Amino acid sequence: MTDGEQKLADAQGRFMQVVEDGRKASGVEWQGCRLLLSNRRLLILTNEGKQTLPLSKMASIKSRGDVNEAIAQVSSYLSIQIGNDVYLVSPKDSDTFEEKLYGAILDQRVVLVKHPAVKGGVVQDASWEKARLKLSEGTVDLAIASGQFVEIEREDVGMVEVTEQEVRGQERHVVEIEHSVDGAVVQTYVSGGGQVVGVLAGLVRQQQEIDADISQAEQEVLMALYSGVSPFKIPEFVGMDVERVEEIYDKLVAEGLLQKVRTRRDVSLKPRGRNIASDVIANQ
Predict the structure, then answer these.
(1) Which of 207, 235, 265 lies at the terminal end of a domain, its last residue?
(2) C-alpha triplet 205, 231, 153: angle, nearest 5°
(3) Tens digits of pLDDT across the chain (284 residues)
(4) CA atoms within 13 A on the CB side of 24
(5) Cα-atom radius of gyration of the chain, to the nearest Å?
(6) Are residues 179 and 229 in the same domain?
(7) Whether residue 223 sits in one domain with residue 201
(8) How far apart are the first and last CA of the chain?
(9) E strand or H helix at 227, and its extent?
(10) 183 and 229 assigned to the same domain
């Protein structure tokens, strides 16, 4: 370790390099390794030597990406892009290691924030303000210089888009995050360097994939709600018994896709549920 460098995590695991210099590697296999993470770099140590992945050069981090069949040998992994190279790493206790890696890049970074940029589908007259980004358990927290505090629950994130916008007179990378605040669906815009935006987008996108456990009946309920059908009229609309619809409501509330409003049968879509319903409709 060099001066000022601090060890954050040390784990046994496996790795493979699946893209080298922009070209997909063939015949790659998982190799056993030691993964040593510091506040400056990720070291991949094997019997043959070591590879150094500087944190400053990591353009994106993704969880459980799909690259080739060999990946099926492990239950979870991270895909790390550095320039034109892509590495997959699968540490033991992957959740803890993943949080440490994201935190090493994002925690305490100063960014520009527009909140809420959109509320209830209506563009707001919000300005860009400086904020400090902090990762907490299950949330992305933004402490804005004006005193406002924004807590984005990662399991409550809907649409996520990376764009380029004019921010304080300059073209900058921006990640647009849809989530909810006090029951209202809002969009918060976060701008920073390309690395911060790319890694933050990868972090909050983790909950976006349609859950394979969602049945056809549950998808029908989500799509009906997304289309504006009253929760009280869902049983008649989808042709199900009231008891069955209430069971589906309970499951989708537990999954973080719906939230209860007042009574048992009065629910509303959360951003993640809206995102799933939108994707289902688009794929019809």
Answers:
(1) 207
(2) 25
(3) 677 789 999 999 999 999 988 888 888 889 999 999 999 999 999 999 999 999 999 999 988 644 444 455 666 889 999 999 999 999 988 888 999 999 999 999 999 999 999 998 899 999 999 999 999 988 999 999 999 999 999 888 888 999 999 999 999 999 999 998 987 889 999 999 889 999 999 999 876 554 546 788 888 888 788 777 888 888 888 888 988 988 888 888 877 778 777 655 567 777 777 677 666 666 65
(4) 5
(5) 21
(6) no
(7) no
(8) 54
(9) none
(10) no
Q: Could you tell me if 128 and 42 lie in one domain?
A: no
**What's the token pair of residue 222?**
């989500």
Last residue of a domain, one of 92, 126, 151: 92
| 104 belongs to a structural domain | no
Q: Is residue 264 a part of any domain in this protein?
A: yes
Residue 102 lies in a domain: no
The CATH number of the domain holding residue 243 is: 1.10.10.10
Q: Which domain holds residue 242?
A: 216-282
For residues 79 and 92, the answer to whether their CB atoms sit within 8 Å is no
The answer to whether 208 and 156 have CB atoms below 8 angstroms apart is no
Domain count across the chain? 3
As given in the structure block, the two tokens for residue 150 are 């924004």
SS3 170: strand
Q: What pTM does this model have?
A: 0.73
Conformational region of residue 194, where left means phi above 0, alpha means psi within -120 to 50, and beta covers everything else: alpha
- If you count them, how many residues does the chain have? 284
